[in-house]
Amino acid sequence: MLVNKKIILYFCPVIQSVMGQSEKFALKKRLASFRYAFNGLKILIQEEHNARIHLFAACCVLIAGAVFKISTTEWIAVIFCIGLVIALELINSAIENAADYLSKEKSESIKKIKDLSAGAVLVAAIASAIIGMIIFLPKFF
């Protein structure tokens, strides 16, 4: 077998349940997973300066949306853009932290990985800014 059976079972809950090897549903464990996720958001806000800039921009956009009474469709676009940028900031931060953990010394490969993940955030932020301009610029004229 090319892939270790334990790896498949660990990452595929559906296979686990079919094979009768899944653990029982535990509300306490599900609630704990939310605690971990919110802790990740807390770490992002505390440690990542660019994430704070994105969150500030998101608050400004949400206020502008309320002031200009944007449509439901526009709200969907705004909330999707905010969610996308924040989610990519979380992924970028996780990748950067993992890379720093794996290699303390300077490495061209690690730099490339970090630059690529930061580039993903940049692309989403630019696309979100363009969508914001499409939504909000006509409100000024």
Give structural attributes.
Helix Hairpins, 6 helices, mainly alpha, 83% helix, 141 residues
Summarize the structure.
With 141 residues, the chain is an all-alpha fold. The chain has a domain at 49-141: Helix Hairpins (Orthogonal Bundle), CATH 1.10.287. Helices cover 83% and strands 0% of the residues.
The chain-level mean pLDDT equals: 89
Order of helices and strands: HHHHHH
Shape: globular
CATH C-level class of the domain at 49-141? Mainly Alpha
Number of helices: 6
Question: In angstroms, what separates the terminal alpha carbons?
Answer: 64 Å
Helix proportion:
over 70%
Biggest sheet character: none
Q: What structural class results from the helix and strand content?
A: mainly alpha
What is the CATH architecture annotation of the domain at 49-141?
A: Orthogonal Bundle
Radius of gyration: 20 Å
What's the β-strand tally?
Answer: 0
Strand content: under 5%
Q: Which stretches of 5+ consecutive residues score pLDDT under 50? A: none
What is the CATH fold-level name of the domain at 49-141? Helix Hairpins
Secondary structure topology:
Layout: H1 5-11, H2 13-18, H3 27-47, H4 49-67, H5 72-102, H6 108-140
Explain what this protein looks like in three dimensions.
- With 141 residues, the protein is mainly α.
- The protein has a domain at 49-141: Helix Hairpins, CATH 1.10.287.3610.
- It contains six helices and no strands.
- The longest helix is centred in the C-terminal third of the chain and has 33 residues, at 108-140.
